[in-house]
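Hi everyone,

Forwarding the result from last night's run.
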Amino acid sequence: MTKRRITALIMCAVMTSTLLAGCGNSGSSNADNNNNTPHDSTQTASTDDEDKVITYWSIGTSEPDATILQAAVDKFNSSTNSGYTVELVNYPTDNYKEKLTIAMSSGECPDVYTNWTGGPLIEYIDAGYAQPIDDLAEKYGITEKLMSSAIAQGTVNGKLYALPFFNIAIEGVFYNKEIFDQYDLEVPSTVEELENVCDKLVENKITPFALANASKWTGSMFFMGLATRYGGLEPFNAAYSGEGSFEDECFLYAGNKIQEWVEKGYFPEGVNSLSFDDGQDKQLMYQETAAMMLQGSWQTSTFAADSQEFYSKIGWFPFPAVEGSSADTSIQIGTVGDIFMTFNCTGAKLDAAMEMASYYFEDEAIEYAVDAGYLPPVNNIKDLVSDEVSKTILDAAMNASTIQLWYDQYLPPAVSNTHQDTCQELFGLTITPEDANAELQQSMQDYLSGN
């Protein structure tokens, strides 16, 4: 990666962080006041004489994430003979990537940090903030437990840099079965059938989709689902490599459908001002003023943790097919791992950090995650799942010909920002689909040319 591209990445993160400065919650405040002393692995290697604190950043500000993440840390701290202790600090999802990039730019990258792989991971590696962990993953018995597809998503140039440990997460539609029964609605298998469902809901003053799009990535799920069901994987792959374009007809179809659905009232009023981190979308589901939510399958655990009574009303189906398209409908969008752990330390500190990571793969930890509604990417996961919603999601994931990583994680950070910005503008009806796609294509071309 060129120095110019690293600098551009950092400047972009600084600008974005400035815009988001007023959006933090108590998680951000606690983290900012923490007396951690992260280090830059490109400048000094870890030694036994240095600071014995392993700084660990993640995004577990809500349950059950916070408990799952902290449990391995607590077990390590109470049982290790390494001489190290781990301090976990969680940040809100929305500004996490920017905060991480700014830390790297100032030489204060944490020793361990979670991320979503894709384009950002490659840049972290190129900038010197990630270490290969193949040998240690084998030493601690982690590799043999992981699904090969999960390992593949954390592998760059044949080396494992990101440890998948959290969840098999794919996008799909959660729906209220009681509302569907009340209005004699069938689970749709095509976009046309989905639109019929939505029209019936609107007639009965029910918002079809609970969506909080201040976060931007939430709305991009609709764009990804529509584009992939229309054109399959090839248009995105071609646009990413520079052999194709984000002005392809599948992306135009996605933008037009989003705006058509906005105008037909399929989304909440003021959708772009509603916050996912504040739970404003799920509240629409709980109030039963909205019938569906397109979201990652991690939402299973949120519904289950908030209310088992409400969760009993929930069903799930994959994003429907587009009529007349030959695209493979088994393709799912998501990740086999959900969040991945990357290590910015070496020597004894890296060994100790991997010891801590190994506790996420103990039977008790895996069983707790499954009971909470998650699907850890381990080989025996199918034998552990009894919940019907989770089984349906797992079947879709296991039967997928491919699981396409989320666009906002796959794309380089600067291009990802453009993608999310233009998606939000589509929902706000402040940009045409043609202009949105042209802007995204220009951002991709700038990245590929090193501008």
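Residues 1-49 have pLDDT under 50 and may be disordered.

Cheers,
N.
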